[in-house]
Amino acid sequence: MTDDDALDPRILRWHTDPRGYELMYERPYRDTATATARLRSWAARWGSVGVGYWIAERDGLPVGIGGVDPLQHEGRDHLNLYYRLDPSARGQGFAREIATAATAYAAEWWPDRSVVARIAPTNGPSLKVARAAGLVDLGPRRAPQDPGDLPAPRFLRSPFARVGPVHAGDSAYDELLDLWCRVNDSGGAVGFEPRAPREAVAEALDRHLTDPHTTLVRLHAPTTRGQDDPPATGPLLGFGFVVLASHFAMRHRCSLMRVMTDPDQRGVNLGRLLMSALHARARKHGRELVQIDYRGGTGLGAFYERCGYVETGRMPGGLRFSFGDRDDVAMTRRLDGLPLPGSTNT
Predict the structure, then answer these.
(1) Cα–Cα–Cα angle for 28, 31, 36, nearest 5°?
(2) Residue 139 lies in a domain
(3) How confident is the model at residue 343, as a pLDDT?
(4) Nearest-CA neighbor of 135 among 78, 180, 77?
(5) Does one domain contain both 131 and 177?
(6) 90 and 131 together in one domain
């Protein structure tokens, strides 16, 4: 956002027109001057904090506003998820596109803050968008400014990324093994074919967990308890491994392996959130480039492109399975957000 956006009559109208607030507990800004002041304060966040709301455009015209903005909630730092569309742009998936991009951005670049939203239970479309972006509904949560004669808003929070050792015999180990086997049986391409023996999967899991160059990153559902309380971790939603290159000429690189999410919870942005958490961990290790390999014919290439990757290698028929040969494809991205040299991916 810029100050010019704060003066744009189209964007101002989204915040002063009562028709945009019919399903909400909030009221529109009472006049253009008040709305302008608020929009200017949002634009200033980028300079003062480094993150804030964006203007979404189609063919150069603004169609919506949204993103994440720092806030204090219950004494802790969080990021507030927000999205609002021009009336002509509703019903076309733009709110979902804004929200999913915002939560993925937050998980990668602001991993120490969860994303939250408080949404009136009457606002079904907004609740649907927040859930599609990966936020988990933790139930009603009333604030002092909420109308006392109406049901409390729903409180939603993004999943948490957990990093730390897991050992055989732990309940967390069983969760990892169970999820990997379920992903295999659902047709997921994570090193095995469907109905692979549990013992074989356990051997592969043990190798990753004991490799000193490998870091496990788990994605867990939030709970109603505190963010920093490990026992309060909710169910496992996905996991993957960051494998650090150890050769002296490759210590700026890493690879991602066994990236998987719960097959029963598809369509709620978990893949993007997990990839973002893995990128954040790789960046914390000081890595600049990250590579991921995938099995051709799975459609994963398009997903990784949305995560910023470009194809950097392909071996036709390089993988052999009982159901036939598949290409072995490598994709790479930079971890500073810039495109790879020579690529057109932005």
Answers:
(1) 90
(2) yes
(3) 67
(4) 78
(5) no
(6) yes
